[in-house]
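Here is a complete protein record:
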Amino acid sequence: MKKTAIVVGAGIVGLATAKALANNGYKVTVLEKTEKAVGASIRNFGMVWPIGQPDGELYQLAKKSASVWKNICDGMGMWFNQSGSLHVAYSKEEWIVLNELLVQFEKEGRPVSLLTPSQIAVKFPHVKQAQLMGGLYSSDEMIVDPRIAVANVSEYLKEFSAVEFLWNHTVQEVGNGYVKSGHLVLNADKIFVCSGPDIETLFPAEFNALPIVKCKLQMMRMVMPIHRSISTSVCGGLSLLHYNSFKQAPSLPLLREKISAEMPEYIQYGIHVMVSQHEAGELTVGDSHEYGFTFDPFDQQHINDLILSYLNRFMNAESWQLKATWNGVYPKMTDGSSWYFSEPINDVYILNGLGGAGMTLSFGVAEKMVEEVI
């Protein structure tokens, strides 16, 4: 008889886990409390972002995930863009950090190069030239539209892996070999709980003991008056403070000191500004990072104004029109871990806490964790 598995949660972590289980011969059922995925998995840039992951296992997991994304996109006829990424420098401190990162990344074998302002002007004309010192380009990164992509992953798993989805099924209890959703009791050999920011609802004691916090981010969608391509995802100097892979730059503390002194509100709200572009030409802009466990449900206009002000420092975005704003919440480990994985009950596993790297790491991490326990 075929082995069975249940996955709780149809966000990107749950979908990646379902795929890994199906690849290993399990008959998989996914339960999701809403009628479609509406959480952090669709409220992001759509960036698959290896450059943000440090060398070694995490970078390789990001590359693995990117490969899986491409296979799914090809299988579903879904748009994606191997856009690469461009980090731009407008101060000497930022430029020094980019030069240091080039040396380190080249040692790691990453596909990176430094571009001069004139090269950027030709390739990426939407980047502002005034005071531009140059940029670090990487070809690793890709973009999907998360609003479409996450739904298409569900369809892909149904079609190609015979994964069953039970939407509008809130799970109230998980035990050894079973889950309960209302009057429905489902049994399985293994159960994986991938419930994102609802992590505490099924295992509150486990959650209370974790080094974990939740993060609220604010983002925006914009459009150009006339649709044009920005050709790559672009990041300002604030992003150099955000990703773990950049911490190896010796001069990064000097850059952090400068930004902390000159832009304290950006540090206070954890703002770094990036822009990605999807198939229809819409531009996703963000974001901020507020940490806690209970958040005001409303967006703060002041935070969005800070994001837009910084965006206009490095992009010719003055004519872009605001189309939508939103916020999302995800759990993040506070002990430096890149995810959380445990077995609170025999053959019941929790996979969570990928922070803001769910789109980048989920397929690689889920494959690794599933293969360790089956």
Observations:
- The first strand starts at residue 4 and ends at 8.
- The CA atoms of residues 240 and 246 lie 6 Å apart.
- The two ends are 16 Å apart (CA to CA).
- The mean pLDDT is 96.
